[in-house]
Each structure stands twice: as C-alpha cells, then as structure tokens.
C-alpha cells in the first residue's frame, strides 16, 4: 500500500477528505436543530397522465432539495447560512447544523426564507445533475 501524495509526510490526499469536513467541530456545545429534507420536482399533465417524459417519483427525477430547519426562539438576523456544493452550514447563537447534502447542488442558485410564525428556515436548493435520459433539460 502506497500513499499517493505530493508530500511524503501526509497520511492522506486532499481528494480523500470529504468536502465540508473543515466545518466539523466536535467541541462546539450548541445543539443540532431538528430538520427535514424533502425533494421537489416539476411535473405537468404530460408526466402525470401520459408518462411521456419518463419521470417517476424517485429522487433521481427531482430538481430541488427543500430543507426545513426548526429554529425556535431565533431571530432572522441571528442566522448565518453558508451553502457549498455538497454542504449546508447553519449557525445561530444556540444552534448549529452541518449537513452533508444527499446530492450536489448549485449553491449560487438556492434561496432561503424564514417563516417567523412557525420559527422555521426553509432552504430550497437546485440539484446539480449530469444530463442523462431522465434529466435532459
């Protein structure tokens, strides 16, 4: 077994370290908020009634990831949100969430809104997929 590295003293390559691991902090005492991940796809009558586009209810056909994070007793101004291609990093004075996303996303095309009545942050991220026979647009 040989370590393939530019520096002989390193024990792993930068490709072996998962994206977002620089945010991990095991000593941070803030609690992890409750969250829910759902997937969203845009369908029309040609999908529902005729099945013409080949879409199915699986996550492979979804265009967006919607993440709802419960943040009780939090103001909008206290939320810090950083989204990378594979990682969502949310921090508030009382809560911290480092979430490795199930699919790569287009981090610049996402949107977030804070529903103050429900105390929920809703983040919608566009999935970044390679074109194939299902995802051709």
UniProtKB/TrEMBL annotation:
What are the residue boundaries of the PIH1D1/2/3 CS-like domain, all occurrences included?
32-127
Signal peptide from the UniProt entry: none
Please provide one cellular component term from the Gene Ontology annotations of this protein. cytoplasm
GO BP terms: namely: axonemal dynein complex assembly; flagellated sperm motility
Look up the domain of life of the source: Eukaryota
UniProt region (Disordered), positions on chain: 1-29
Positions with biased composition (Acidic residues):
16-26
GO molecular function annotations of the record: dynein intermediate chain binding; protein-folding chaperone binding
Say which family it is in: Belongs to the PIH1 family.
- Protein's recorded name: PIHD3 protein
UniProt source species: Panurus biarmicus
State the organism's lineage: Eukaryota, Metazoa, Chordata, Craniata, Vertebrata
